[in-house]
Amino acid sequence: MSPRAATLALLLLALLLGAANSFYVVRETEKAVRLRFGQLIEEDIAPGLHLKVPVADDVRRFDGRILTLDAETESFFTVERKRLMVDSYAKWRIADVGTYYRATGGDERVAQNRLANRINTGLRNEFGVRTLREVVSGERDQLMAEILADLNETVRDSLGIEVIDVRVKRIDLPEEVSEQVYRRMTAEREKEARDLRAKGHEQAERIRAEADRQRVVIEAEAYREAEKIRGTGDAQATAIYAAAYREDPEFYAFTRSLRAYRNAFGDEKDVLVLDPEGDFFRYLERAGR
Fold first, then answer.
1. Which residues lie closer than 8 Å to 102 by C-beta, 6 or more apart?
2. pLDDT tens digits, one per residue of 125-164
3. For the whole prediction, is pTM greater than 0.85?
4. Are 264 and 272 in contact (CB under 8 A)?
5. CA dihedral (207, 208, 209, 210) positive or negative
6. What share of the chain is helix, strand, coil (3-state, %, to 5)?
7. Under CATH, to which class is 67-172 assigned?
């Protein structure tokens, strides 16, 4: 290849590289700024294809979507001087890319750290004027709304960031306090269990006494009914016997004498001294004749 052809080839290659470096694309999910020799010359570049000066211009792109800041657990005091361990997070995005670049140099970690410091300051201020009950359950939504409003008043102008939401994931007592609270709760639950057992035993004794009383009443009523039925039966039996004996009084007297003989002579060792002419031996005398 001749020197002239080589020069033309090199010139053509340089032109192609320059043309390739003269265009850049900004996506819909990105925020971008353009620098010229390190100086910011264009902010908030719209998505699409754009032209720049090769070598002199540099395009910096940043994530324009909603990002999550998961803050470290921090210690805060309530108005009652009770220390709490608070774990929080925030949702944020770049609102003003020029301010964001000038404040952080485009470093997302720097933005996260500064935003975390602002959030911790806001939480500390809000927790410091509320009681434990208010920050745990009573006014948490109001607390978060006030922190969010205060943050957006400052970070938008200072960092170019818009905070979408701030939430507290978890609120715990310090470990040494949690152990004391756990022991106190255990003692209270044990006391409550003892009270419930005592009330249960008392109620059981009351139920058992009532059951015993009802058993005695039922047995007495059953015995009374049985005696009434037995008396009615005996009366009916006596009436039947009387009616039968009235039919033959002599037979009744005979059977009664046999019963008396059986009762009198039931044991061989028994000795009776009676008048042979008495009524007791009347039927025996007739049998001998």
1. 40, 160
2. 888 888 877 777 766 777 788 888 888 888 888 899 999 9
3. no
4. yes
5. positive
6. 60, 20, 20
7. alpha beta
